[in-house]
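ok so for the tutorial part 2 we go from a plain amino acid sequence to predicted structure tokens. step 1 is just haveing the sequence, like this:
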Amino acid sequence: MGDPALERYRGVIPEWSAFLEASSRPEPTVFRLRRGGVAPAVVLERLADQGFRTRPLEGLPAMHQVEDGPYPLSSTVEHWLGLLYVQQASTGVAAPALGPRPGERVLDLCSAPGGKTTHLADLMEERGCLVASEISESRIRGLLGNVYRLGHTGIFTVAADGRGFPEGALFDRVLVDAPCSGEGTLRRSGRAPDPSASFRSHVTRTQSRLLERAVGLTRPGGTILYVTCTFAPEENEAIVDDALERLPVELESLDLPIPHAPGLTAFDGRSYDPRLEGAARIYPHHLDSGGLFLARLRRLGGGEAVAPNGPARTEGGPDGWAPVPLVFPGENVNAAEAEARIHAGVEEITERFGFDGDFDEVGWVMRGGRAWMHTLDAWPMPAWAKGEWRPISVGLRALDFDSRGRTRPSNDFLRWLANRVSERVLDVDRDALERLLRREAVPVTEDDRGPVALRYAGDVIGRGAVTVDGLKSEIPKARASDLRRCLKASGE
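step 2 — the prediction. this is what the tokens look like for a chain of 492 residues:
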């Protein structure tokens, strides 16, 4: 006998017995390999050396399923380093379906915890501008943890309610990963949620307002992808049907490279726009994963989305985009001072760490006395009116300056530099690393005091410091605790 909460879908879900059987099984672990940096084949080989048996997922590039392993994939050093992201197979469909291209302006309206956001950033190759918006303060912390762990430089994170997201700038593509009743996640909890009528009414109002705001933020010719992880037509086809009737959008049929079912055109006595057959429903038995609904819309009104690598906008332009300044708005430092400080800091880091490369492809912005590194070619912030939103981060925090003006690279920045540094790099073995992570000093022959890059098993893992007491770790406590957990798992 199936879950009573699912019985209402018996007549619309094909292969009902396969659906129920898949829904009753634990969900396998799936992960997406991070683009850039360490080659995918090398990461897979490293996992295999630890005893993980994996296989690629057909139709989902960069995604692999764990068929067997000695401990949770999230307890590997590879996960800690940001070489991979543990992610449901079904959710890996969303970012490719939106179709972002390098150089475009993209908005993720409900972005935490960051699986789809970081997938979008990978597809954009850190070029253009990806705005990640989230309303929940606690979820923003999780989002930033994933953005920084994976080392993404092309993401501008803001705290905002998507229903009232600031207007004034238009995007080429907008993802609406709407809050929902979450029926598609039933394999995690063991049973489908049974939402009340009042919850359904509240959540559908939120979904409708989010989609309406997304359409208003999309340039004519641009793309909106509406996504939920529920089976309920009230939260899926009904929301899109209403948008097709009221808003200047056209539904684009989805031709996904993975098994799926078409959208519904009728349910429980209500008919929907026949075009909704072009939406997609992914059920647990399709990918041995969770459930997902996707509908792709094109904004009407003439024109096309901006071409990749198009000309930079200027402030006050018709689309609301402007170059990212050297000084974050509201900071008590002028542009000349900021430029001099950043230039000196970059030179110091390049010389001290023997950086083999250049920073021609990155931008810098001073905020809070620190230099942030980014690859945004423009941002919309000057066009946004004041309101219930605030900026959180631009790219990665890269350079800190002490009270004497000396430069210290951040842990994220050193991991981003990785094997492109050759000086002031200290290799540590497992015993030394565990002592460092416990905040103990270890003996070192290096006598030049100051910041160093810590390297373990060939990977730069963060910043240390040579002091009068010996070598100490300056990896943040929470990150150090996570790395200790990984070392313990692999040791066992």
